[in-house]
Amino acid sequence: MHHTLRLRGRERAENLLKRAQFGLARITRIAGAKRDAFFVLGDALTAVIACTVASALGGNSSLSSTTLLGGLVTAAFIIAANVTLRNYRLAWVTFSLSDLRRLFAACVLVAATHAGLRAIPAWTGLVPAGPVLTGMVLFLCLATFRGSKRLLVEPFFAPAEGRRTLIVMSSRHAYFLPNVLRRLGNFDYNIVGIIDPNPAQVGSYEQGIEVVGTTDDIEAIVERYRAEVVMVMLADDPGFGLGDFYARLHRLGTVDVKTLPSLVDIIEDRSDLGALEKLCIHELTGRPPVSTDVVAMRRVFGSKRIMVTGAGGSIGSELCRQLARFGPESIIMFERDDSNLFYIDRELRAAHPRLKVIPFLGDITRPEDTELACGRHRPQVIFHAAAYKHVPILEFHPEDAVRVNVLGTHLLARAAVRHRAECLVYISTDKAVNPSSVMGASKRLGEMLAAAMNGLGDLRTVAVRFGNVLDSRGSVTTIFRDAIARRQPITVTHREMKRYLMLTSEAVLLVLQAAALGKGGEVFVLDMGNPVSIWDLAHRMVELAGLTPNRDIPIVLSGTRPGEKLFEELLTAEEGTVVTENNRVFRARISRNLCYPDLLAAINNLEAQLGLLDPQQLRQELARLVPGYCPDPCPGMEPTASGQRSKTGDRSPDSGAALPQSALGELVTERGYGLL
């Protein structure tokens, strides 16, 4: 019984819902039909008036039946033209210049039809005025009719109520803001002026609002107009200088700063602090964004079989995305995390349906995987991005760092030689220079391996160093962004901490250009601008989010982590740079590299001791292989300002000279090989 009642109740509810939907659709159709009928009648009346006015301007001042008949014929023509051009779908209240162009096209069609009728003697009387004059008058009348509602609805003057607001036109897309804000009647903003970086625009008007000054005069303008809010749309051109502009606004302390993403970022679903990261880079490093020559890259990588290890990581996935643009024959994505591999595989297939995308689930430390990948797919170019990268973690897991960053590199390079790959590009790091951590030492040893194996078989090897990438997982800005979004404190390890910073997309583009430039055995260094103060970066990111540091978001010092330097370096004191064809890529001037047989013996010895040595002993063994690496017996000690551990026997921070070396270091000294 109860079940039957429930079924009947559900049926009644479904019937009511269907009736409501049918009624709504009917109302919509009726409303649409009424709207169309209104515009058709309005166009017809406007056409009759326009034809009469045109006839009077043409010298026929009397209102005759021929003139009225000509007006009706013109009305029929303009209705037909508007139907053809879908001008009855135009919104009345938002009538715009693009709508005006479509209306002009309809009037041109009418004028052309009039010209054709005048060529027929029997029809000449129906077109009393000239076709050009009739078309012009018709266009003016229709434009007035169609734009009338917008003229009446939009206010001529900004409302006096609301918070007094200045709009900064830092982007070409920002010019839509005044109209949008004024048309939102319940928006609590009274726009009192526009600020434009271009001095030539001062005194002009944008959408009825005066351009009152430039960003150079922001303090005086805020005071003069008693502004309470400054709205800024993020600039598309990072050369605008918005970072300093924000700092000046926050120093005033009396104005609320609103940050809006650019339209491009909104469309591309990037309307978050990612745009602020790009801004921070230019403001803090003083360098322009990286660009690339797509044609040149196509010549190098087009029609090539390319393999990327660590393809699911931050650098590896971006390498896959960029390489896919240059027309390779195939991209083999080598990755051990099946989820990461799934996502990048799906992304590439959707973006490049004609590209041959080969996902390969494998581990760089397993020789059977590297052999199978290189043997089955025969890559011509290999980008080796698979690595362990987190400094504090690897300080306590040196065996894993050696296994992945050193032995994995060796396995891959040997497979590349055996299967006649043309080029191996080793992704290195600034932490490999005068390493103070296990991670840096393992990456430096990887550089040495890559250089020693250059020329074996057909293989050409290239290593590329760069610093921190901002939008990678676990990067400093990713951590800061998450803290800002959650309104949690930002932790900085040391007030003097500095890092080289670059976007992943920028780093990858320069890696590709370095790979194209390399002749074999080189270590390339990317131009990363000036090192960035992490303390300043934290403050700047909070400010760019429209917040106040230490009021809205606390910034606290947490103490340095194991293996961490205060300053990173891209070159040692002994190294210099040689310019290349690309002014953003430099070749490190390194003396002769160690020959492969000597290095192979040392690597084999290191591998044999894995599992037998405790972490500190393994760090000491690494120090015997990597000149300049002095492991800290007590991980977590406070580093000195030069980035070195404050222990006796450390190298001088000024000279960059290495500690006395044993084992392989002595071999290097004897045979005159300069590893640094």
From TrEMBL:
Spans through the membrane: 37-57, 63-83, 126-145
Domain Polysaccharide biosynthesis protein CapD-like per the UniProt entry, residue ranges: 306-588
Keyword field: Membrane, Transmembrane, Transmembrane helix
UniProt-annotated stretches for the region Disordered: 633-659
PANTHER family: POLYSACCHARIDE BIOSYNTHESIS PROTEIN EPSC-RELATED, UDP-N-ACETYLGLUCOSAMINE 4,6-DEHYDRATASE
Family to which this protein belongs: Belongs to the polysaccharide synthase family.
Name by which UniProt lists this protein: Polysaccharide biosynthesis protein
